[in-house]
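Recap from last week: sequence in, structure out.
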Amino acid sequence: MQLAERVRIREVGPRDGFQNEPETIPTDVKVELIDALARTGLRRIEVTSFVRPDVIPQLADAAEVLARVDIPEDVAVGVLIPNERGLERALRLRQEALEVRDDGGVRAPARPRARAHTHPPFDEINVFLSASETHNRRNVNRSIAESLAGLENVLGRARAAGLRCEGVISTSFGCPYEGAVPVERVLDIARQLRDAGAQEIGFGDTTGMANPRQVREFFELARDWLGPTGGDGPAGGGGAAAGDPVELTAHFHNTRGQGLANVLAALQAGVDSFESSFGELGGCPVPAGATGNIASEDLVSLLHEMGIETGIDLDALLACARRVQEVLGRRLGSHTLVAGPVDWRPAADR
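Predicted structure tokens:
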């Protein structure tokens, strides 16, 4: 199969990455980093989560972050929604923000915002569950059936509110507790999420168990089960119209160093949508040792070297990764952060 000429990348570091950090990241720093990421050419950023603050204290400042970030209107802002209570909090905040802005833009900062005051604070929601019963129990204390029942309600309400919806399936390629996860189970969950209103399905290699052969075979089968991949919905709008093909997205972790190899395999299977995290931040809290997502800058570097467009300024993205490395005070796993972009000029000309 011919590789895609252009790939879409969704940055998940401000949520998926930050939530795994043991030290609290100040809200000011989060806002600074998100604003910088929004000016790298990225078109989609997962900013925060509406999980209970006592469960993930790192993201307890979700409302303040959304109120303060300065993100251009052509960049879609996403939030993670764990359940119906989380959706209620998110929709209430969204409505309150619009009412405040309509009432004179009280929340507007001193500098002009990139978004109009009438633009909502977020455009997309993401829901999640595991394809492994054991992992789902340990992660959210529900069976798969219980999670699906709740998420079907969330997706329906979110679509009715004009939000674009993604359903993410963790442990799609293997589970640290159960081992192999039947592909048919993963794709059946994907169908149910699609039928409930998800316009995009993300398949997560949650603990880095996938291999390239498995990935290619998986996505070839997924295309048969779910139809051809769909494109971006309008950034900042309600997403693709009903009846459009569901978008298939790959979410790889680099736990065993196979993340980019799996990206290539997914590309060969026709995938053109990926999720990644700047600086290789992130992982999974269940189980311990499930280290970070593939680094956004490594992914962009690979794609650009292959002649595949992303619309992203790699140097600007690397500046964000350097800044978060400085904030965290430790060396991050990103290879391009260490080596820098490939420079094809003769040494004498640099």
